[in-house]
Design a protein that fits this description.
The protein has helices at residues 14-27, 30-41, 47-54, 58-70, 92-100; strands spanning 45-46, 74-79, 82-87. The chain is built from five helices and three strands.
Amino acid sequence: STMTAPTTVLASNADKAKQMADLLKALSHPVRLQIISVLCHVEEAHVTGLIGCLEAPQAAVSQQLALLRARGLVEVRRGEGYAWYRLGVPYLRDLVQCLESSPLVQG
């Protein structure tokens, strides 16, 4: 017997699957994931605060923030002498929560 493919958003839409893969690629760097995770739990954060939370070099955090901004995954505003970052797409909270609670991720 032949298998009938389930009708799902991904099974029936290669373009949508590519867009989702591109999103996952944009998140597939440890520092980018850490930045998104912090921003999922706070309204907004400035670069100095992110550097302190992540214990990552300033250059690495700034570089990854620039990539996240280019993808529209974070937004920035300037105020009080800082660049303040927040999630550009709030649904990332659900994705990060799923990843953080996954039994596939240890530690």
